[in-house]
Design brief:
alpha/beta; 21 helices; single chain; nine-stranded mixed β-sheet; four-stranded parallel β-sheet
Length: about 650
């Protein structure tokens, strides 16, 4: 027997490395079952050294390296054509698996799946139980045919209200138990196993789908060909990215809609196809509307609370001050309460926002700094007003102080109740389950990735029964499993167990210099530079964009004069309008190279710079452009952009 595994990779080197570790870790079980293993990796022009890692770590892998991103279906088909083009003694005993790179398989996953298919001749394709990086079951492990009604219930979000209804939850076949083998209709694209014989009859993946549809179409064609699709929960895989996509976003819904339109044109006719598209349109508008309202409410809730608390304090202070001056609360005109005080608060809150006071993680000094700057601006503005328009400097100062205190108090309340994005400032703790050697390696990885502040506590694998107690005693935030000391099946089982705290689970692969979390990666190459004022913080991204807009507008206004002194007149207005539109920035790391964009809609180079960080230098320092750009990104200051733009003002 033979098993050919096809993995499509695009810029997920660390996930791919761990996936292949688990795949080849199952080789002993495959050999014991007389199962020959071969692996194809199709790389869609990754820029993260994936190919170098493959060639050095896994020379036994057959690599197909594309020069651009050809998409999921087409990339899979490249390897499938190579597999199907070879002579095979018995196509019923040659198995083919489509596997995502962001997965982790158990040591006996392949053996169990092959055994099941060998004993079920009617099985055309097979899927397994999937859990996410925290051990939670992923409902896309088993799905039903996307009828108009099922698609409507899914896209509209109604499926969440009745997750086990045979009718409303039909998209995820919610009526079927998660731990029982069952015949299903649609398999997840992350893991689809079939035979070469079935593949010859069904054909390759449909390349007209861009995303979210090729697996549905592929699965349904097995049923149309007379086969049955099965869900096998007796073995499990971790699928890290299963829930990482922002499925509430309009972009996801739109992409999913396009896939469903292709599907409906192919499998529905007449009134059914028209009804299908109508229901999906309705579901999209409903989902988009609810998603917009939810995002709006979540973003405005805290500013609204800040404003309300500040306004109440300002009014009380105003009334007390009026009582002190004139023994009446009506000393100040109504417009002072209705217009001037809200203006004060708006300026204070705007200044706080610009200084990162509303960014996460919470930094109290940003709030104080923002409020102080806002109060200073208001006092300067106050001093410029006519005497008749000056109401009270004391109310302004006391009100600003009150606003600072209430804003900090609200953050303290959110921290106390453990609201999302607000956590205690105590030192975070991680329980490392592994041998002494692997524990030391894990400590080194955390240190290299800039997480020295985290307290690491070791738990011997033989004492794993005490994990829950240790999490409770140390109030642990993370549990790190050392893959060299624990089998994948054991790790998944431990993830699925109830925990006294809401911990994050991470895995350190047997080899490699990285730690993989639920859907993120920590490695020495990552920029853990929040304390160094990294460019990717929300405040710096926001301020950089505001600087780009304001400076571009100013330059545009003086262009009738400035244009004639430019050294590159042919590019002047094009670059200027690109900055205004957000397609480019004044200073970025990508000026000297052509950016390779993935083949997907609306992709654009938001970090493409007119000038590079090295343009600030007056002489050659010997550092490479990459090293200079790294320092620029790690310790960003807006003044650097200002200086670079000023020095190169005639080279736009």
């Amino acid at each position: 027997m033979k098993l050919s595994i096809v993995i499509v990779n695009y810029n997920v080197r660390f996930f791919l490395e761990q996936c292949l570790e688990s795949v080849f870790g199952s080789s002993l079980d495959c050999a014991a079952g007389n199962l020959e293993l071969e692996v194809f990796v199709v790389d869609n022009d990754s820029a993260d050294d994936s190919l170098e890692m493959l060639r050095s770590r896994f020379p036994q892998v057959a690599i197909i390296a594309n020069r651009d991103n050809v998409g999921f279906a087409r990339a899979n088909n490249q390897a499938l054509r190579e597999i199907m083009g070879r002579e095979t003694e018995d196509p019923t005993r040659h198995y083919v698996l489509l596997l995502n790179p962001d997965t982790l398989v158990e040591h006996d996953t392949f053996a169990k799946c092959v055994d099941f298919m060998a004993t079920h001749s009617d099985c055309g394709a097979l899927g397994v139980k999937m859990v996410d990086g925290n051990g939670r079951y992923l409902k896309e492990s088993k799905r039903g045919f996307p009828t108009p009604a099922a698609s409507f219930y899914k896209l509209s979000g109604l499926i969440r209200l009745f997750p086990h209804s045979r009718h409303i939850a039909a998209y995820y076949m919610g009526h079927l138990p998660d731990d029982r083998t069952a015949q299903i209709e649609i398999l997840p694209g992350a893991f689809i196993m079939t035979t070469l014989q079935a593949l010859d009859k069904v054909g390759l993946l449909d390349e007209s789908y861009f995303m979210y549809g090729e697996d549905i179409d592929f699965s349904w064609r097995f049923i149309l060909a007379g086969y049955k699709n099965y869900y096998l929960p007796e073995t499990r895989i971790i699928h890290y990215k299963g829930e990482s996509t922002k499925k509430g976003s309009l972009n996801y819904v739109y992409t999913f809609y396009n896939a469903m339109v292709i599907f409906s044109k192919r499998y529905f006719r007449g009134r059914h196809a028209a009804m299908y598209r109508l229901l999906i349109h309705l579901a999209i508008w409903l989902r988009a509307g609810l998603s917009f309202l939810h995002r709006l409410a979540s973003r405005l809730a805290l500013p609204a609370a800040d404003f309300g608390a500040a306004f109440a304090g300002f009014v009380v202070i105003k009334n007390l001050w009026a009582k002190h001056l004139a023994n009446t609360v009506n000393y100040y005109p109504a417009e002072y309460t209705c217009a001037v005080i809200p203006f004060y608060i708006a300026v204070l809150m705007l200044s706080t926002w610009l200084n990162g006071g509303y960014d996460k993680p919470l930094k109290h000094w940003r709030i104080v700094k923002g409020m102080a700057i806002g109060a200073t601006v208001l006092l300067l503005f106050y001093s410029l007003l006519d005497e008749t328009q000056r109401y009270s400097r004391a109310i302004l100062l006391l009100g600003s102080l009150w606003t600072i205190l209430t804003t900090l108090a609200l953050r303290g309340l959110l921290t106390a109740i453990g609201a999302e994005g607000y956590r205690s400032k105590r030192k975070r703790t991680a329980i490392v389950v592994g041998s002494e050697q692997e524990y030391r390696r894990t400590c080194e990885l955390y240190a290299k990735s800039g997480q020295n502040e985290k307290k690491l506590v070791r738990l011997e694998p033989t004492e794993i029964r005490h994990l829950a107690e240790l999490v409770h005693i140390h109030r642990a935030d993370d549990v790190v499993f050392c893959g060299k000391d624990l089998a994948t099946a054991e790790i998944i089982s431990l993830m699925a167990q109830p925990s006294p705290r809401n911990v994050d689970y991470k895995i350190v692969p047997p080899e490699g210099d990285f730690v993989i979390g639920s859907n993120s990666i920590s490695s020495p190459e990552d920029l853990y530079t929040e304390e160094l004022n990294a460019i990717n913080t929300p405040m710096n991204r926001r301020n950089k964009r505001l600087f780009d807009i304001v400076s571009a507008i100013v330059i545009l206004l003086i262009s009738p004069v400035l244009f004639w002194f430019q050294q590159r007149k042919t590019r002047y207005f094009n670059d200027l309008f690109c900055v205004l539109a957000g397609r480019k920035t004044w200073v970025g790391a990508n000026r000297s190279r052509q950016i390779r964009q993935p083949s997907k809609p609306n992709a654009r180079a938001t970090d493409d710079g007119i000038f590079s960080p090295s343009d600030i230098l007056t002489h050659n320092t010997g550092d490479s452009d990459q090293a200079i750009s790294l320092r620029y990104a790690r310790n960003y200051h807006l003044s650097t952009d200002m200086i670079i733009l000023w020095k190169n003002l005639l080279r736009i």
